[in-house]
């Protein structure tokens, strides 16, 4: 029995296929392999290692760089709709926020930007929530993904970024998540900074430098990645089931890459 319903699985397959078609069009049509050009630029390298290695490496670099643009938000939305009931990308949440809390959020972000403090999610929330009552200001947050569990009525938000986000992206996400937690009578039970996979292995090994200015990427509970993200989104087993869908699509494209890009006879 399939983990996802047929409509969801097909939606995910379509997203992956669009991405793969774009990658192949770029490598086969828009920017085809040019061995002579490569030899001019890296003559000593090419003199020592077979062409197939360089050709494969060029594809690998292009693919890995592009993977962040596959459409992770749309895949996550499809998974959440299937398993939780309702999900929407770029969802606007409006509410009121204590002006003193809002000022504290900006103060914390400013201190982090200037390296005047180290990120610590629990301590930051404690400081924000300890602020005295002030005027209520209207505010809004556009979350990358809003999810509602139809059965339990729990509401979640996710800021979904590529596994190697830049500093500016991470700052914007941190501000949005802090505001979501600080809204008066916030309907959002939890909000997270989510990475769809982790190229470093485990969370404690994560080592991309830029987001560390804003989050303790290894310790903050608000940061989730790979299996912890997908299984929270869709329930236990979601991460492995999603990989299986990718593998199903990969069977077709692996043969296509071997034949049309690497010129390997199958």
Outline the fold blueprint.
Blueprint (H helix, E strand, L loop, with lengths): L5 H25 L4 H7 L1 H6 L2 H16 L5 H13 E14 H15 L7 H9 L6 E14 L5 E6 L6 H16 L7 E6 L27 E3 L1 H8 L3 H24 L5
Parallel strand pairs: 3-4, 4-5
Antiparallel strand pairs: 1-2, 2-3
Helix pairs in contact: 1-5, 1-10, 6-7, 6-8, 9-10
Write up this protein.
The chain folds into 2 domains: 6-69, no CATH class; 72-235, no CATH class. Helix content is 52%, strand content 16%. It has 10 helices and 5 strands. Helix 6 (99-113) packs antiparallel against helix 7 and helix 6 (99-113) runs antiparallel to helix 8 (167-182). The radius of gyration is 22 Å and the shape is globular.
Strand content is 15-25%
How many helices? The count is 10
Sheet with the most strands: spatial strand order: 1-2-3-4-5
Radius of gyration: 22 Å
Report the structural category: alpha/beta
Number of strands: 5
Number of spatially distinct domains: 2
* Order of H and E elements: HHHHHEHHEEHEEHH
Poorly predicted ranges:
none
Q: Which percent bin holds the helix content?
A: 40-55%
Quick structural gist:
The chain has ten helices and five strands; from the N terminus they run αααααβααββαββαα.
Features:
about 270 residues, alpha/beta, 2 domains, five-stranded mixed sheet
